[in-house]
Request: fold
Amino acid sequence: MPTDHLAAARSGDAAAMNEFLTACVPLVRMTAIRILGAGNDMVDDAIQESLIKVWRNLHRFSAGNIEAWIVTVTSNACHDARLSATHRHWHGSIGLHTLQGVAAIDDTAAIVCRDESRRRVRDAISRLYPTYQPVAWLMYVEGCKAGEAAQVLGVPDATVYAQAKHVKTMLGKILSEN
Reply:
């Protein structure tokens, strides 16, 4: 149980911190596997990142359930790992799909227009809530269908459909402001 060495670890005792983190590993591993899936390459990275975050932020933990806090830290690390992998996928892909309504690419004016449209869309996406940004990027910049976006993000299709509905509304409002 991670609580055995908590007080000493919080006071700066290095040996107690080591014992505390060692006791956290089964909980962190179980949480990471539940979120990312067994056999996922990101599990070990998420576990390491979780333990580092617990170590760095243990002083911030206030009274409450330490195990719930560790699960939250691990959950956030897993989601960060998934988004990081998605981000690498986006930037490693062939490139941005041409946005609707943009003129032919061989015309200099069209290139400037296309680049400006892309910049506006990227800026609008950056203003969305962080949870909506991956869906917005995949669907409205990369041109993925909802099922493809769900597969890249590792979430159910219904999640992407629901988020896409909100994203479309929010992007419309943001883009109409400019």
